Amino acid sequence: MTDLYAAQRAMRNMRNAALQRGVVAILDVGTSKIACLVLRFDGDRFAGSEGVGSMAGQSSFRVIGAATTRSRGVRFGEIDAMSETERAIRTAVQAAQKMAQTRVDHVIACFSGGAPRSYGLDGQVEVDGNIVSEQDVARVLAACDQPDYGAHREVLHAQPVNFALDHRSGLGDPRGQIGQTLACDMHMLTVDSATIQNLLYCIKRCDLEVAGLASGAYVSGISALVEDEQELGAACVDLGGGSTDVSIFMKKHMIYADSVRMGGEHVTSDIAMGLQIPTATAERIKTFYGGVHATGMDDREMIEVGGDSGDWDKDRRTVSRSDLIAIMRPRVEEILEGVRERLDAAGFEHLPSQQIVLTGGGSQIPGLETLAPKILGQQVRIGRPLRVQGLPQAATGAAFASAVGLCLFAAHPQDEWWDFEVPVDSYPARSLKRAVRWFKENW
């Protein structure tokens, strides 16, 4: 546990140093692509009004460099071949640096694997005096009992999602309010520690310092969901290459995250096996002709498969588009069924809003917007990331939802609004010191 605290503290110090220098890189390590954006921050990092919320303390930034490369050595969102992933990260970062015409030393990274697991914690304390102070907030955060999440897992995100003061619940920020009993609900996300360590080691081999880590499910949600959806409750489903991330937001906080270990690359491999063609050809056919909703026209639309086997007859094969759809649809349905299971396990049907937003590269499959409501529920839309200043047109699609979300995360890390300096020793020992330190150092 001590190593985890040390690593998180070092990352936060590096992030502050990078933001003071004004330049930081964003690295989205995915199964199908690795994207790198270089951000330049203007003025004070916490420019703007004091407060708590999804846009509180947002500092202005601009994307000055962007590059993507095909991902290598990553499976299910986790590093599989270290040297190949290192080479791909170097390629993306160098291209982004060249475009930005500046050197970056610090990166903030996000990843999709690691078997994320959500926990709901709660705690309650009596307020010292009548007015809630920062110390009272810190004590109630410390009173949340930390679950036994296993030896080989690490905390990636931890933030309070709701405060209650006496009989009033749903408070965003209880500081300065009058009451006797303060209660808090907190969401904690843990991931497999080996996944994090491999990613940190790989980035270090690229001569870069990690200034922050985030879950792909979290950053996709903050970029693809509009403010009303984050407030009323909505689920974000990021259909990536190797895994599909699921996150649920409520009151502008993430309250649940999970992932399905299937994605767009599984659809591609099904096409490659079904049509007996190379993976690269299968990817091209999926991109240009794919779909999940067959019509009468598709029987007559023939697709030339192509190939380079040297056998003229084999290389000139054609298949109908309806045959292609018949291969793709079962796998897409299987992925959506997995998402439905995760949402049911989280109790999504009890939320006041039933909005589901599909994003990520896999969400661009034609016909998905008509298939998804049949499996997931009625209110489904395809989400594109928010526009950020300086973002190239090529990087505004749904496939870049997590990269754009990571920019927003870098600009205003929500967890740090609750990182108060607490005179821990002045309170009863119990597990308070350990718990306060756990929250403070797990941004």
UniProtKB/TrEMBL annotation:
Its main location: membrane. The keyword Nucleotide-binding does not apply. It comes from the Bacteria. InterPro entries: ATPase_NBD (IPR043129), Cell_div_FtsA (IPR020823), FtsA/MreB (IPR050696), SHS2_FtsA (IPR003494). SUPFAM superfamilies: Actin-like ATPase domain. Coiled coil: none annotated. Keywords: Cell cycle, Cell division, Cell membrane, Membrane. SMART domains: FtsA (SM00842). Signal peptide: none annotated. GO terms for biological process: FtsZ-dependent cytokinesis. It holds the Pfam family FtsA. It is a peripheral membrane protein. It is found in: Cell membrane. GO terms for cellular component: cell division site; cytoplasmic side of plasma membrane. Cell division protein that is involved in the assembly of the Z ring. May serve as a membrane anchor for the Z ring. NCBIfam families: ftsA. Belongs to the FtsA/MreB family. Self-interacts. Interacts with FtsZ. This is Cell division protein FtsA.
